[in-house]
## 1
Amino acid sequence: MSISDDKKIMIITSIAFFCLGISLAVIGPVLPQLSRQSGAGLVEIGAVFTMLFLGALIAQVAAGPISDRFGQRTVLFWGSLILGAGMLVFSLSPSLWMILLFAFLGGLGHGAVDLSSNVLIAQVFERRSVAALNLLNFFYGLGAFAGPALVGLAIGAWNNGLYIPAINGLLFIALAPFILKLKIPQNTVVALEKRPNDTFSVYRQPLLWMLGLLLLVYVGVENGLGGWISTYMSTTTRLSMDSAALVSSAFWMALTLGRLLNAYLGMRLSPERILFTCIGTSLAGGLLFAFSTGVQTLSIISILLTGLGFGAVYPTVIAIVNKAFRQNAGKAASLAAAMGSIGGMILPWAQGFILDRYGASASAWFVCLGIAGLLVLFIVIHQLNQPARQSVPACETN
């Protein structure tokens, strides 16, 4: 039984996203080991997040125009190789400067794989983009769940969680030849060729910048919370570090379930309604998180609720971007994703700084206020999106 080209694309990108989820989620649980390995303090080693997302930012700025010209497959192929090499050497590096350098290299690959996969799936499954993107990102969440759990098991078995990012890097390198064999459907190639001459007009749309700003806050808060959960829980409760890593896995599993749920709801609800529901759910979790510092059960419940709400935010925003700016999807998604990477550069480092200098409670309120900011941005986007459907030629309603 032969598999259609579009299904092959979904399978390969889903595998890539599973590994992508592992690559980011393992950073938090291995930070203490990286700190001991390099001799750097926890705040200094927290700069790994900054370098990772700096690399992703540069890749996403460049990948949009490159993918519009050469196609998403080329960007996905090179991104997989670069990310694999970066993660492999990163986990073996003995000094802080080497760790940060190869985290930056891994970030370049991460940004390329993330952007190219999302845009490719949105184009191939245009009529079902919200559902397809949530399904794709479901595998990211599945990898993000598996990553900290595997680190916890590796620490327990071999006292070395860094085996996991090293193996994950090898998996990305092994995936690259399969990416080259993908055949992009003709309708996607034709859509890429039919663009207006004024391709830079997309950068003048306030709606795109507000969607990008929402991703900036969201990516920063999500990765800040996901990256520091292990340290937060081991600091505020009696959980050991390997048990705290399992709480981090639970957060990513809740996020994964949120994406799976919204892959189903995406066929029935508008993207805006899904986005509002997700932000409202995560805000409820964020408030509980802020008020439950030191209470193990309530902290875990709040983390799960926040993760469930976070699930569909990123893929749904990318679906909105693709539908609103479909004739320049690469450039639009590139800008929005790059702004998300700026958030990933700044906010996880800031949360680590607050956790170290001002305590766990301040760190929890930092998360809560960030989620509240998402709600404010959603309201602005909702207002902008109404006239945008009529004033921007490339726009269409869901």
## 2
Amino acid sequence: MNDPLSNREIWVVWGGIFLDTSFTELEAGTEELIGPFPSQAEAEKAWLERMRRMVDIASHRLFVLRAQPAAKPT
């Protein structure tokens, strides 16, 4: 059976407020996940809108990430 998600990708915006500016550990309860989006351009638009609202928080970071279905073992 063919997987309808094979050869497709989705885009998400992920991040939050980190404990410090090393951006290695998120502050508990601040994680954000926005999406999924069908294109990188749409994800970047959502990223920009959200980052504009949080510009005053130096330890707030969001990242645009591409996700693809995991390959099924053969």
## 3
Amino acid sequence: MSIAVLQEKIRAGKTPVALGLAPVLEKINPRIVKSFENMFGDAIQTKTESLRYHCTTLLDAVEGMTPAVVFSAAAFLRYGYLGLEVLENLTHIAKGKGLYTIIDARTTDPTLWSYANGVTVVPYLGSDSYDVPGDKSAFVVLRTANLSAGEVQNLMAGDRKLYAAVGEQVARRGETLGGCIGTDYSLDVKELRRRMEKTFFLLTDCGCEAASYGFDELGHGALVVNRDIQWAEEPAKAMEDAVREMKKWVTIV
């Protein structure tokens, strides 16, 4: 599905928030882990099945409440091929619930994740690292939230910082590509929106205020990824609260 399909899902539900799934075994309910430990013992299956159960429960809880789900590939790949199998299975479950599926893989080969609707890509091998078929989407990682991000992303490329220069290259490719922005620096989000007026933004690690600068005047052009919901005691309520809070900053028409 193209980014245009994702935008339509957001508009239809008036919901600018996606469920972010980056499960950590140590945070999963110990009773869940224990139940699989009783079946598999101290084996990798205990960990991967705990992740599968935890994420499936969350997908059930927020069904019909969000347009999309964003899976962190690293959270699953640390468990090898069994973790990869769980990630693929969860992607198909999410699709079955009508969710737009994005894998946050930070990859240089988006074809490896063809079973998802979209994938995040790292652009520094050149534009061929984010070539995807027309029915898929790629979100090019431009600005990230890790502490040392500025050591590279803020390097000057002519009169612009590197992340802005790459953003302009992405924008010139048209509306088939999106930008992935993970920072709570409002000025950086504003700068990228100024340079990439028509590009769709996937906003990770952004607070509501910073994220609001990624949307246009109609509340279009962006989606906020919320990873806190996955640890809530009542995920459905947490999703409602997250959407309500974001709507204080953005009105979708």
## 4
Amino acid sequence: MDPQPIDVTAAVIERSDRYLIARRPEGVHLAEFWEFPGGKREEDESLEACLARELREELGVVVEVGVLWRRVVHTYPEKTVALHFFLCRIQQGQPRPLHGTEIAWAAPGEFSRYRFPAADEQVLEDIGSEKPSFR
């Protein structure tokens, strides 16, 4: 029987047809891979509250968390994650890496220049075809 997946949130933030991505720091699962910013949900925390907290702590921004756009369950050899991708809009601040990570604004046609985890593959394709935006 598979263990319960770990809930992880991710923000899809669009600005001028580019999407905010962040590089995972050294010493963590999937270190050096790029991802949509977010993080692991704490016990008794809603997914939306988790995402708002993670973006405030990691990037120094206040966001409006919109609709759940995609949910992906992916099993890695060491764990299973349930990734919840929300459309978000920055309300306050400019994103900046507060924990030594790197950030970038990438257009869908540029995603192939970055190394993303396997769990993000379908979402990357969907962004390229649908161009989701909070608008």
